[in-house]
Amino acid sequence: MEIGNNPPLGSTSEKKTASPLSRDRIAEAYLDQIPFDLYPFQEEALLAWFSSEEGVLVCAPTGMGKTLIAEAAMFEALHTGRIAYYTTPLIALTEQKYRELQALAVRWGFRPTDVGLVTGNRRENPDATCLVVVAEILANRLLHPERFDFDRVSAVVMDEFHSFADPERGIVWEVTLGRLPKHVRLLLLSATVGNAREFIDWLRTAHQRRVELVEGFERRVPLVFQWVPDRLLMEQIEEMAQGDEQSRKTPALVFCFNRAECWRVAEQIKGRQVLTPGQQAALAAALKQYDLSTGAGPKLRQLLLRGVGVHHAGVLPKYRRIVEELFQQKLLSVAVCTETLSAGINLPARSVVLPTILKGPPGRKRLMDASSAHQIFGRAGRPQYDKVGYVFALPHEDDVKLARWKEKYDRIPENTKDPVLLKMRRELERKKPARSPHEQYWTKEQFEKLQRSPPGKLASRGPLPWRLLAYMLDASPEVDRIRQLVSRRLMDSRRIQEGQKQLEKMLLVLWRAGYVQLVPPPPVKGGPSAPGVSAAEPAWAPAVSLRRQVSEDEDESLRWELVRPPVPDSFGAGIFDLQPWELQNQTTPPVSAPLEPKTAQPGSAQPEPSRGQPPVLEKRHSDSPPSAAFDHSGRKGLLDDWLASRPDLLAALSPPPSDAQAEGG
């Protein structure tokens, strides 16, 4: 592989470096230490990275070796002494990359302390050359240039970059792309997407950044998909574990979509024979080195002894690491997990098993989206061990019972006169199982649809979140940079215009409620309004921080949270602590140390809130300020509840159409 005649690293017009190493030298050194032959796709991506001045977008299915490209950027940073960020969307993935990069740094002749970790409430070696962070951490730093210097930053790697299209958190990647200094080279690692060229064109026009595109399409290990209509999950797992090393279909990942289901399924599998005697003895010996005495440890230990692990955000990190280590050593046959393991965490398996392909709360489940499905499918097949990977999907157990009943029923000839067979038929008809009206079911056709579905597209989804607006106003009152963020979103011009109108209405709502001062203020009715505003000064200073957030069916991540500032009681409560007033029955997200409306003295009437003012809230003292999450993912936020009680303000705040509406769906 030839690299070409490249200049010393970092020698762009924006930033000079004293490093004597050229990109050619570093590229050669990196290639020399790789102990295996590269695939053509990897060679092309490495060539692009070491040749590019501004960045590379790498799109390929799971299992294609994209991590090797990311490691090249870290190798480069360590050899030049210039800082590189490695971002991921999940805390668990961030912690795993941190451990992996520390081990690599030592192998490359550097110290483990040259790799650092920042995840919100955990900081390890924060001044290191290579910093592994959750995506929100980098965005937060870019929004505060007065506190975080990017002059010495040479590169940013964004792993799992297809998260850009996430309706809830995709805005984080948009903010980062918009604020990243031009001298910082960008490496974007994504699953296969349907509009990669459209995205790099948008990046060039919206952010004046030219990145090269490298795409890989063929998996190293082909996949075999199988619908299993007549077998219950426990039977399927036991069947997969039979045979010799070459013929059995384990190790396997069993994907569930909530944590309670993970434990329930693991307990069911525990009673089945999934280990050989040799595996069982080796596993028992390996478990002696681990302390599983606290929390869920004893329960997990019993599962591990039977060859079954559990991996999700509710499991302590130290226990997750034990599951990962045992699985990687091929001592576990099964790991029951949530989608955490579809997001790049290194737990390669021969097979993937899907007990269901529906996601969501009971009664409102929907077919999983194609992007999530392909991420899960991609975990099957280990390039170093397997010639093929297997993806098994099972129907609802009610449908399995029906399939078994039908098989027995169909064995009886339709025109039989045999009294024994006729009696057997009548008995079968009497005991015919039925679907429940309270359950949701899925089909083989839906599973096949997921296999055929094209990859998702990179696009801006969802409205501008209230809390991001507050965060950006907290960092700077300049409104133009928020308008600029909206104007650069990856969506059609009509939706961008609607987004700008939405922003102006949001500013007007905050102004009319008395929480910001618009500069200049909106004129009287009939004149121009918020579009002429240049600044939105908070009437008091809101505090915004990053908080860990864990949902029922996903791993820990970070979210921007709005935190009540220490203000005098006369200020009342801030907009970020508003409780529902008239709509007491509305759903309200949890609030730590909640604040309540002031109550009247016994015998007196409850005072009405004055029009145009939110309810006055009593201040409670606590060691940490309470937080209120204004979630734009479908749950009603506290601000939304209060606005619902104010139709005059609500009328000024009509949200833009959903993605489905915008696309004619």
Main pleated-sheet profile: 8 strands, mixed
Helix and strand content put the structural class at: alpha/beta
Count of runs of 4 or more consecutive helical residues:
22
Query: Which stretches of 5+ consecutive residues score pLDDT under 50?
Result: 1-5, 7-18, 540-544, 561-646, 648-665
Main-sheet strand order equals: 4-3-5-2-6-7-1-8
Strand content: 5-15%
Shape: globular
| Total of domains | 4
Return Rg in Å: 28 Å
Task: Find the count of extended strands (DSSP E, 2+ residues).
Answer: 21
Q: Measure the end-to-end span.
A: 47 Å
Q: What oligomeric state is this?
A: single chain
Mean pLDDT, nearest integer? 79
User: Fraction of residues in helices?
Assistant: 25-40%
Structure commentary:
This protein folds into 4 domains: 23-215, Rossmann fold (3-Layer(aba) Sandwich); 223-396 and 439-452, Rossmann fold; 398-430, no CATH class; 466-661, no CATH class. A hairpin with a 4-residue loop joins β3 (115-118) and β4. The strands form 5 sheets. Strands 4-3-5-2-6-7-1-8 form an 8-stranded mixed beta sheet, with helices on both faces. Strands 9-16-13-10-12-11 form a 6-stranded parallel beta sheet, sandwiched between helices. It has 22 helices and 21 strands. It is globular and about 90 Å long. Mean pLDDT is 79; it is low at 1-5, 7-18, 540-544, 561-646 and 648-665. By secondary structure, it is α/β, with parallel strands linked by helices.
Quick structural summary:
The chain is of the alpha/beta class and 665 residues long.
Characteristics of this structure?
single chain; Rossmann fold; disordered C terminus; 22 helices; six-stranded parallel sheet; alpha/beta; 4 domains; disordered N terminus; 665 residues
